[in-house]
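Tokens as discussed.
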């Protein structure tokens, strides 16, 4: 008897291990309601009505317009295959060229018994790191061709049977929303685990594709309708249980003996939009794209097209499009790379630049581990990307495409600073000098640039402009190993507006950016009631943000907790009011060379006679910004105010200070000090970044500040081209701007 019990237990364990690939038809038994809906769509002779009444590509709904400027998304192939670092699904086909190391169906599906990530915050870990490096959306494989669903679906196999119904899709969606990332779902309409989908011969390349014609077409059609109903039922779950879904990445509907034109692409897309009016959908419903058939099996129909899978983009395929590729290498394919091998960031940048220069988005793929987290090398790569983005983001994220591939021997991107500009007429062009490029850069601009600088350091580039052509060569000392971006600016014609003459233009602005000290109040003094009333009233009619030299907490408290966003330390820090509370939402750090600053600030004190000071001689901010107060960090506030009211003392020192601290941006700040930041930080670029992130063009912005002249903290506003009001007496600012809210 004991021997019999042991034998039965062993058989039960084996059955559990092999249950996944030994299909149970009961898991796929579809309801009559779902079957009726499938037949309604299959029998439709015209597209079903979309949410807006017309099926137009790309989706014209306001909520879909984020896509073309999103620029960078993260593709996540994750599932039971991640346990063994296998190529998703294709790994089960014996001798398949693109399948990686072969695993039988038994081995592959047995991983469902082990797939159970324990860390509840793993999505937040790597999605947060990606967000901080510039990624704007993510796309998770909710179900691949293997049929394993990451949500507790009513049908098929997945977490419902093997993880007690844990909803991994819900955890992913919650993390994306918390981090401000757009939510994308990958979903494979194909399901190789579905009863009757494929005979055993399809799992071996030697016998693959040799099924012969369908013998009973009537029966095959009925089986297809049931499968079609199953696919729509799962899609409905994904599109109705998780709130707003921003993107749907389909990967090929198919049934043996059914032609692509029978798959009702437009009818299905109309139905999807009826559930999610703002969604963007790719071009792979009836269009099956496989590694051995990159051209696809049908026409590309969707809101965005995807013709460049693992191929560097070479042309513009459609109005909206996306380029996906595998960031890892040497094993794992689209899945988890157990060795943590990543292609270098220079490769990443070449693909990213190729996409953005032609107006597409880049979707690099990294597969998480079976435990849910990323390989440590992912975080190393992301850290390098974040460092590059600190200065280079404006040249790729949200930028415009090239003004013409024929115009340069390096890729170009553009940024329109005023509404109505096309790429050719944009005021800013970016030349991407990638590591593999050697020699002289030639750009046909047809107009003389105002400035040509290395974006990373703001250093001027020696160049020649003649007969419509700009030519330059980056010195070896300026070259990096990722992507050297040269910023070409054509406009330096900001307008200093007059509140009397230009009142109408000022009132038409949408984003108001305010300096604080000596614009709304005296240096480090609290807001007076009139200034506070001004800010509160303006906030009712406009979006208002503070653009400060000081750090965000100090500015917030100085303003008496007026609830406005603050960009502090010349763009190194940003705060916002979140759920009624003040929070730092971004903080760039660049530790200062304290020995260097100590040495040279002591030199200037001795040379110019400022050896007596109160408090500390230098203030080192947490961000890395440095303030050199000639009277120290804690002088009497009234002594500060009368020390250098016209800044003449510091202007006399400025040329020499600028020469010594040539690797920094140097500002005549406050009432007694010089401010130093890494070169990429200034109020214009900080303002432009904020405006772009909040959907404003440059001509919708108005800056209000006092320190506009060369060397002043607001000087880049004038130098780089934003409309501004110059404040001469902060006490008169409330009366001067009263007309804007009355």
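Sequence:
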């Amino acid at each position: 008897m004991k021997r019999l019990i042991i034998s039965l237990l062993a058989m039960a364990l084996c059955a559990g291990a092999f249950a996944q690939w030994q299909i149970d038809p009961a898991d796929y038994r579809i309801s009559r309601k779902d079957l009726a809906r499938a037949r309604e769509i299959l029998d439709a002779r015209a597209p079903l009505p979309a949410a807006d009444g017309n099926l137009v590509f790309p989706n014209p709904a306001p909520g879909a317009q984020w896509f073309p400027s999103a620029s960078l998304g993260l593709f996540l192939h994750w599932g039971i295959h991640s346990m063994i670092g296998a190529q998703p699904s294709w790994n089960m086909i014996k001798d398949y060229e693109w399948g990686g190391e072969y695993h039988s169906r038994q081995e592959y599906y047995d991983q469902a018994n082990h797939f159970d990530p324990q860390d509840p915050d793993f999505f937040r870990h790597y999605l947060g790191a990606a967000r901080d490096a510039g990624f704007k959306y993510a796309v998770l494989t909710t179900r691949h061709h293997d049929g394993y669903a990451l949500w507790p679906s009513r049908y098929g196999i997945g977490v419902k049977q093997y993880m007690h119904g844990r909803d991994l899709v819900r955890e992913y969606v919650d993390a994306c929303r918390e981090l401000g990332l757009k939510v994308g779902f990958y979903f494979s309409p194909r399901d190789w685990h579905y009863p009757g989908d494929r005979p055993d011969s399809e799992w071996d390349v030697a016998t693959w594709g040799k099924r012969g014609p369908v013998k009973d077409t009537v029966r095959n059609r009925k089986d297809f309708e049931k499968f079609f109903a199953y696919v729509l039922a799962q899609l409905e779950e994904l599109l109705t249980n998780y709130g707003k879904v921003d993107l749907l990445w389909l990967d090929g509907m198919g049934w043996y003996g059914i032609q692509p034109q029978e798959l009702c692409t437009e009818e299905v897309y109309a139905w999807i939009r009826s559930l999610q009016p703002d969604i963007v959908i790719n071009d792979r419903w009836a269009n099956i794209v496989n590694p051995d058939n990159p051209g696809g099996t049908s026409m590309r129909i969707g809101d965005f097209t995807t013709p460049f899978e693992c191929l560097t983009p070479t042309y513009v395929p459609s109005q909206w499009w996306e380029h996906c590729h595998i960031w890892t290498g040497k094993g794992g394919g689209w899945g988890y790379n157990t060795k943590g091998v990543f292609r270098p960031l220079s490769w990443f940048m070449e693909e990213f630049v190729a996409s953005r220069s032609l107006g597409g988005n880049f979707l690099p793929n990294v597969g998480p581990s079976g435990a849910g987290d990323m390989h440590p090398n992912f975080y190393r790569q992301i850290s390098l990307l974040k460092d590059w983005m600190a200065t280079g983001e404006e040249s790729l994220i949200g930028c415009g495409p090239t003004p013409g591939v024929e115009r340069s021997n390096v890729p170009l991107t553009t940024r329109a600073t005023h509404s109505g500009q096309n790429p050719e007429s944009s005021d800013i062009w970016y030349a991407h000098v990638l590591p593999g490029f050697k020699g002289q850069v030639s750009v046909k601009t047809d107009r003389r640039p105002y400035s040509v600088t290395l974006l990373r350091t703001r250093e001027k580039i020696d160049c020649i402009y003649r007969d419509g052509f700009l030519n330059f060569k980056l010195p070896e000392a300026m070259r990096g190993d990722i992507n050297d971006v040269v910023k070409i600016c054509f406009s330096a014609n900001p307008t200093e507006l007059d509140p009397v003459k230009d009142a109408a233009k000022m009132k038409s602005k949408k984003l108001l950016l305010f300096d604080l000290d000596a614009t709304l109040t005296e240096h480090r003094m609290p807001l007076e009631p009139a200034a506070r009333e001004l800010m509160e009233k303006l906030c009712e009619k406009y979006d208002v943000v503070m653009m400060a030299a000081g750090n965000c907490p100090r500015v917030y408290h100085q303003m008496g907790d007026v609830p406005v966003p603050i960009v502090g330390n010349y763009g190194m820090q940003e705060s916002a009011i979140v759920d009624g509370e003040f929070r730092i939402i971004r903080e760039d750090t660049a530790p200062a060379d304290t020995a260097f600053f100590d040495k040279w600030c002591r030199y200037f004190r001795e040379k110019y006679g400022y050896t007596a000071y109160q408090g500390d001689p230098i203030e080192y901010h947490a961000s890395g910004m440095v303030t050199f107060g000639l009277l120290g960090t804690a002088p009497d506030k009234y002594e500060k105010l009368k020390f250098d009211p016209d800044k003449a003392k510091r202007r006399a020192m400025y040329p020499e200070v600028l020469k010594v601290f040539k690797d920094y941006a140097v500002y005549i700040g406050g009432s007694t000090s010089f401010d130093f930041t890494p070169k990429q930080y200034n109020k214009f670029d900080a303002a432009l970044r904020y405006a772009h992130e909040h959907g404003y063009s440059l001509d919708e912005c108005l800056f209000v500040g006092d320190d506009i002249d060369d060397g002043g903290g607001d000087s880049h506003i004038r130098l780089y081209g934003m409309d501004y009001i110059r404040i001469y007496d902060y006490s008169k600012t409330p009366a001067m701007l009263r007309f804007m809210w009355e």
